[in-house]
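Hi support team,

I submitted a single chain yesterday and got back a structure, but I'm not sure I'm reading the token output correctly. Could someone confirm the output below corresponds to the sequence I sent? I've pasted both exactly as they appear in my results page.

Thanks,
R.
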Amino acid sequence: MPEFHRLRVAEVVEETADARSLVFDVDTTRLPYRPGQFLTLRIPSDRCGSVARAYSLSSSPVTDGRLAVTVKRTAEGYASNWICDNVAAGTELDVLEPAGVFTPKSLDDDLLLFAAGSGVTPIMSILKSALATGTGRVVLVYANRDEQSVIFARELAELTAAHPGRLLVLHWLESVQGLPDQGALQSLADAFPDHDAFVCGPKPFMDATRKALRGAGFQKSAIHLERFASLAGNPFDSAAPAEPAGEEAQPEDSVVEVTIDGEARTFTWPADKRLLDLLEDNGIQAPSSCAEGICAACECRVTEGEVTMVNNQVLEQEDLADGYVLACQSLPKTPKIKVDYG
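Hi R., thanks for writing in. Yes, this is the structure output for that exact sequence:
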């Protein structure tokens, strides 16, 4: 059964006249997520009790201490209008856990990002994360009606100034250049081959961009589209409330047997200590590098028991199914655990 969390809004940031960022009073240790994922919010409704709407996380799990989503008011959008008119600091909202697959496999890749309007929201999360921890070049093509419609304008300017050799932002304003068409978008894509492309925005923009990328020779595997489909039902109807952080039962310590370099050693594993820290505290120099869950240098395999990871941006589902975890992000979940570095 899915769980939902009741989160308090710590701050509402007015990004433009019709866009607001909701900054929640919760950090990534409680709700870990990957760049480009989204939150599903429960919005009250006089007609049916509540509706569920998905909004992308504009915050970065590696640069921002708190989670944030950005919502743009639309003319016929009940939920977006309710949020922009009613949500303020102190408002409490129910949210499902972060979800979505619109996220880079590696933040070290060269990235070509296309966004239009509020489609910049997940793109911003990816962009900030890649600049903070990756090594590749990041190019953003951002389309809007006019200069006043540009969400995150100041922040993008600051990031460009801070990363002059790695970040290029190309603004496309309909009031100046007209609507971006496939030919113009393809000319832009032609200039950045061998990049991984991520696209988010209104359907006509995404369709034109996808065709432009294919025309420029991009492989299907290098084109990632964020499409939000209408929910068939309300997922909150079958969700259970998560245990409030302040009322959780105190977890018990586990016992872990770690085999590294052919030698097995057993330790008491405190519930709040990550595996890599436990090993270092006991004088074991286990493989590691970034300690942020994004490089896989500390990968090891759980052969008995279970762990939970605070953050994972590199291991695929097949890896997880085979028991592989990141020691720098792993916390104990069962009383007895065995880990192998072989």
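A quick pointer for reading it: Residues 277 and 328 are 7 Å apart (CA to CA). Let us know if anything else looks off.

Best,
Support desk
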